[in-house]
Amino acid sequence: MKKYNTKTIPRATAKRLPLYLRNLTILDSKGIARIKSKELSEITQVPPATIRRDFSYLGELGRSGYGYEVAFLIKVFSEILDSNEENKIAIVGFGNLGKALANNNFRRNQNLMITCVFDNDPAIIGQTIAGFYVYSMDDFKQVIQEKNVKTAISTVPSEYAQEAIDIVVNSEITAILNFAPDRVEVPANISIRYIDLTTELLTLLFFDRNYKKTSLAVTS
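-> structure tokens emitted (220 positions)
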């Protein structure tokens, strides 16, 4: 497989690659071998011209009038997005959402591993829950350095998110996925992404009301 220079891919394009890969994988599971940009646009709600431009940064992935081989695109995007390195992850906040994430433990990618979980609730600190020992946030820096963790997922509610993120940042974590929708302040060297479940649900309902279904329609 060709090696791709990911540093030349624009940030906006990079954000869409997981969306493409997720939908292409579903299409492949349905036995769809080839797709055109217009058809992929109907699924992802990304304009066809944007899809073609995104793909062009990676070379010649398809042919005019023919479209794209689904299996080939999956290989390309998988290579770009997947690292051969083991990525150890800490979960901050071990409530219902934290437990759900830990139980999933990224089964589709063996290089993503929930290594440790943290909370500030005395009732669960020191307990083993769902197979995970719950550490105190007071021990966060020591534990993640011992376990060489560089990524954290925060499920802490917005009103406490900044305090939790401050602890995470001060422990040499460089990548954070935050499930609290409100923005927090982090240093420029920290990569942080936000997931707002309410916004995602409203977007889903909007598309469900306003866009016609097609025979290729899948969850985006």
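The chain has two domains: 6-79, 87-198.
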